[in-house]
Amino acid sequence: MRSPIQIVFAVLHALVLREFLGRFTKRRMGAFWTLLEPFLHVFVLTLFFTYLRGRQVAGMEYPVYLITGLVPFLLYRNISSRLMDSISSNRGLFAYKQIKPMDTFVARMIVELVLMSLVYALLLFVFGWVGFDVSVHRPLEWAVVLLFGLTFAFSLGIVFAVITNALPDTRFFIKMLFMPLYFISGVVYPPSRLPEQYIEIFLWNPFLHLSELTRTFIFEHYVPVRGISFNYVVESTIILTFSALALYRVRRQKLLAI
Fold this sequence. Notes:
Elements: H1 4-25, H2 30-53, E1 56-57, E2 60-61, H3 62-89, H4 101-129, H5 139-166, H6 171-184, H7 196-202, H8 206-218, H9 230-255
Antiparallel strand pairs: 1-2
Helix pairs in contact: 1-4, 2-3, 2-4, 3-4, 3-5, 3-6, 3-8, 5-8, 5-9, 8-9
């Protein structure tokens, strides 16, 4: 007889392997595109903004500035969108009583975290090799911010999964939501260059706070835009996490429907 903990770990192990195989064998370019997408983002945006504004932004080399905001944002985006599709992709597995929707959520988050960590490490290695300074000034605080970002994205993915399970037509609009977030979250250029009259509105966006705090703890002399708050990230994450878990508990039987 296996304990409940052993069953949970066995389920997660099987689901993680299934996700990896699905990502790398379902599409011929699956593994290659996972590595290529961030490099294309960095290459195209670096060429574009270097041509328009020069090599430096906010007192630092633009490629380094870009990857410190881009890779975490892609991680958060991928976790939220992958969790949103996990119910429909794994619905047949719910016939096994050991497998719950939450297991598929956790498995997909693990897969995305592993893949993007490898991509981030590879980017930092390449940038360090060509001579850029890729050191982290305050690694402990940087890791804490990333942890809250992961928790926020995981909770957001649960909310999206429940919504799209009840209203499948909303899936397209939710995915389109990340396009404007890409530009108003401080990923591509400093938020200080956003129209001043709109900054107060943009500060409601937790991803903007996450991007600015991440760069604050990486770069020694980086000054975030006025209004950035770590407390806001903590409060938003706690509220969203409790809301997501409550919504999941209310709708868990609907999610299990085969």
